């Protein structure tokens, strides 16, 4: 937690004072090991970044006086479309994508996505948001990414995808692609990544049919958790 | 497991036949769901890659006839020096680095590495090797990376590091660096990455004193697990 993220219902008063309990209090006690008078980096969800001066820190409450004096880092100009990963990997991928500044993530069904993944409690809004917040706290960002769940492949690709990719560079990661992932694109990108085992040929054709270029990252097969940060670092 | 990695003591006979039990058998039964006659991708640790034809598959044994007809993918020209991450992150970082083709990894002490990390059972040779093998199986590689444990910072930096970086581009990732991580270096690189919280100024100075250039990856603070694949994808 490199930034303590304040939420609208934390109830910051007119003097910039706020009281925190729970996970954030615990972190400040155990990891920051802060004391009254210390300054901690804070951010307002959807807003600015600044400093919180510790007024009171007890096992029950952290009271700070906060002020915000700069904006969050710029978002990555990317929509990430991910075939739904297995739940444990999903959590890590969401944290990673959120920490790297992705602001729109589509979790999509595909043939090689196990049906049971869609029943995971990790897909509940609260669980998704938790991982995204952890990513923001890691990267000192404040802007929560949006997640779209799309459990039906075909209607998503046929009805939504053409609109989604307008004015972007649409790329689909595929181990059999011939083109290497472009570097430092300087453009808004829509990036689709298949499940472990890859999109099936029908799916690749449907996606390519919308205008996506298949690209790869070398000849190695990488896990979703590895390929997401690697591709993002290449693209931007 | 995109490749079944065979080990020297698996005892391949003169006809290229081999019997496997344990983890690899279980994977072929449960994930590949293979049957007699199927061909699976195999590799020989430290050697070639090829195909194994399933002769017999029962809950007790997998028997294959294997042949190797191509070489493993080229290694990444990189020595990765990592301040020892917390044990769970270490396991994932090792898998990632191994899957991306890193062949030499130095695990180094630093001021902000918790002392208890050095007592972790995950640092035993068998546990380290296990993660590296998982990375190779993921990426269809066969060449096991070497790991050096260096629990003393100063003697490592003063006595070993100058020799290690000879003829390489030495870079140290540091959030306060001004230079961005270079792209597509086309060179052999030595990359040092600090602990969560960063190297302390003394450590950065010592490392920079050997000739390392401090570099950063944007303005976000990323976790070790994210920054390793991201930096490697930038550098190569």
Written account of the structure:
The structure is a homodimer of 236-residue chains. Chain A is α/β, with parallel strands linked by helices and 236 residues long. Chain A has two domains: 4-70, Beta Barrel (Ribosomal Protein L25, Chain P); 78-235, SPOUT methyltransferase, trefoil knot domain (Alpha/beta knot), CATH 3.40.1280. Helices cover 31% and strands 27% of the residues of chain A. Chain A has helices at residues 22-32, 87-100, 125-139, 153-164, 201-209, 224-235, and strands at residues 4-6, 17-20, 39-44, 49-57, 62-70, 78-83, 104-108, 146-150, 169-173, 179-180, 189-193, 213-216. Chain A has a seven-stranded parallel β-sheet with strand order 8-7-6-11-9-12-10, with helices on both faces. In chain A, strands 1-3-4-5-2 form a five-stranded mixed β-sheet. In chain A, strand 7 (104-108), helix 3 and strand 8 form a beta-alpha-beta unit. In chain A, helix 2 (87-100) crosses helix 3 and helix 2 (87-100) packs parallel to helix 6. At the A-B interface, helix 2 and helix 6 of A face helix 2 and helix 6 of B.
